[in-house]
Amino acid sequence: MRYLITGGCGFIGCNMVRFVLSQQPEASVRILDRLTYAGSLDNLGEEADDPRVEFIHGDICDPEAARSATDGCDAIIHLAAESHVDRSIFGAEAAVRTNFEGTFRMLEAARDAGVQRFLHVSTDEVYGAAEGVSFDEDAPLLARNPYSASKAGADRLARAYWVTYDLPVVITRPANNYGPYQYPEKLVPLFVYRALRDEPLPVYGDGMQVRDWLHVEDHCRAMLTVLEHGVPGEAYNIAAHNERPNLETIRLILDELGKPESLIQHVTDRPGHDVRYSMKGDRLAALGWEPQTPWEAGMRATVRWFADNLTWLETAYQRGRDFFEKWYANR
Ligand code: NAD
Ligand code: TYD
User: Fold this and answer.
1) Is the CB of 110 under 6 A from ligand 2?
2) What is the fold, at CATH topology level, of the domain defined by 2-178+213-238?
3) Nearest 10 degrees: CA dihedral of 279, 282, 286, 287?
4) Nearest protein Cα to ligand 2, atom 23
């Protein structure tokens, strides 16, 4: 199989590059990545020099880059995105452009190239807040912030390319991921970074918002399962069945690092904060996938990974510094 992985230098992308090559030694992987603040060739490690890996530095919104990267590929795993809710609230343009227009360009390129499978990676956030419910794949998409709304648009556009043009699209809606190489703007690596420096941890509101935590390796396995066994046109929730209030996650981070809970600082809530994400996972379970990583062991190992890779953490953090200074000032 010849894969194209968009966003292959980001968090989930670099883990997926490794996973695909480990599971399918005969496969080749081409990466199309613009290397925004969130992406880095460092994330590829040894895989950057693997002869099975080809890197193309380009923007998914550029039709020529999308076309030439797609040329000769059997399957596309479309991960490239502006993936941070807070940044999309601060300024929505980049999310709308990359997540919606960029997906449009990739779908067009895939159609021209006649690929066998297009895996569109959506998100559980497209459903909006799961207050008192757990969504199945037929629930309406009631996204409530610019990031999730741009992803909801892309999710439906991907489906439209199956219905209208017979492009063999499969869609996944994963829960919140955690694991090595996550960019330190997201809760877990940001709080590890700050706790290690004895800086306060800015908990939005009461910290009782609930997220369902999926280890990135379980996620990678789920993506291959859907690529290989998913029905074109269908969407598949990737639920971890591991719902935790943020404060529980934060206390575990502090415990693993041996830092005091006095670092917790409640700050002004995120506008339009989705209080809970929750999905049913029956459709993917029927394809034989279930999450395997135990919550506490997986989270502790992840926290340790960041603490053991301080140069990586610091370098990544510095690339996004401008945003952090503006977003967290006066919160
Ligand atoms: P990330 O921000 O860590 O990485 C995104 C990657 O895309 C980076 O390498 C970046 O350089 C690249 N990129 C951004 N804009 C680009 C453009 N215009 N052209 C080419 N490359 C571009 O994101 P992630 O956490 O790895 O998320 C990957 C995908 O999974 C996204 O589609 C996201 O919406 C989805 N998702 C993520 C999570 C999560 O918890 N991280 C949960 C559900 C769904
Ligand atoms: P985040 O990692 O940004 O993922 P998402 O918003 O896509 O779920 O945030 C996870 C949870 O942590 C979410 O409820 C918001 C909360 N959070 C904070 O309380 N403080 C922070 O500084 C960040 C980044 C997140």
Assistant:
1) no
2) Rossmann fold (3.40.50)
3) 0
4) 187
